[in-house]
Design brief:
By secondary structure, the chain is of the alpha+beta class. The chain has two helices and five strands. Bound molecules: FE2/S2 (inorganic) cluster.
């Protein structure tokens, strides 16, 4: 199944893509040239350059970060929000279909 993901830039512009189930949303962002997602550490929760905010308005829960992700989120560049996640830890699945990810900035 393909999962619909929408990325929203700080200026409000949006880009939508269909992502293969099982792919993490940092890799998906790189594949679709999403500005502001860098993924420097390759998805090992060591860089936080894949930080996104799950748009509370999209109705999809941001989920609970694991302890290591949680620690990284405390030091993100643009400040953590209640729905902040490292997108390398969000895995495309049917539950996330239609998720909107705001790029901090
Ligand atoms: S890619 Fe480095 S923490 Fe997600």
């Amino acid at each position: 199944m393909m999962i619909k993901v929408i990325w929203v830039q700080p200026d409000g512009s949006e880009k939508e893509a269909l992502v293969e189930e099982g792919m993490n949303l940092m890799d998906a962002a790189l594949e679709h040239d999403i500005e502001g997602v860098i993924g420097e550490c390759g998805g090992s929760m060591a860089c936080a350059t894949c930080h996104v905010e799950v748009d509370p308005g999209c109705g999809i829960p941001a989920g609970d970060p694991q302890p290591m992700e949680n620690e990284m989120l405390d030091v993100v560049e643009y400040g953590r929000t209640a729905t902040s996640r490292l997108s390398c830890q969000l895995i495309a699945s049917p539950e996330l279909d239609g998720i909107r990810l705001k790029i901090p900035g």
